Amino acid sequence: MVFAGLAGLLLTPTAAAEESQYQKARREHPDLFKLYYDETVMAYCGLLTPESEAGFRLERDALLLADPVEAEALRTLRVASDMAADYAYQDYGLNGQKRWCKSEGLEAYNRFVGRYRAQAPQPGPEIQSE
Predict the structure, then answer these.
(1) Cβ count near 75 (within 10 Å)
(2) Reported pTM
(3) What is the model's pLDDT at position 128?
């Protein structure tokens, strides 16, 4: 019982509640965090293509236009998303990575490619010369 009391003193609310800069960035900008996380997952899964990267940039630019983020905060957010993707990759292991890529990786790929194709310039009607 005394030990439990001492443990409670050692885990003060300040020590337990401290938030890293990466956790703070993730909490403050969840949509951007997810965006960068998904890009990193696609990279791990070999799903980066010109279309998926263009769709990523379109979505990123729209999010940053709606909610501008300072350069240092954006860098911290990128690091946080890279760390999260790296931890997820390690958690899945070699066999689980295939499932991860077929679920999260493919979902991100399809979302970004769909975004790109929806906003890509459509070819105009062909003009035929006489």
Answers:
(1) 12
(2) 0.77
(3) 57
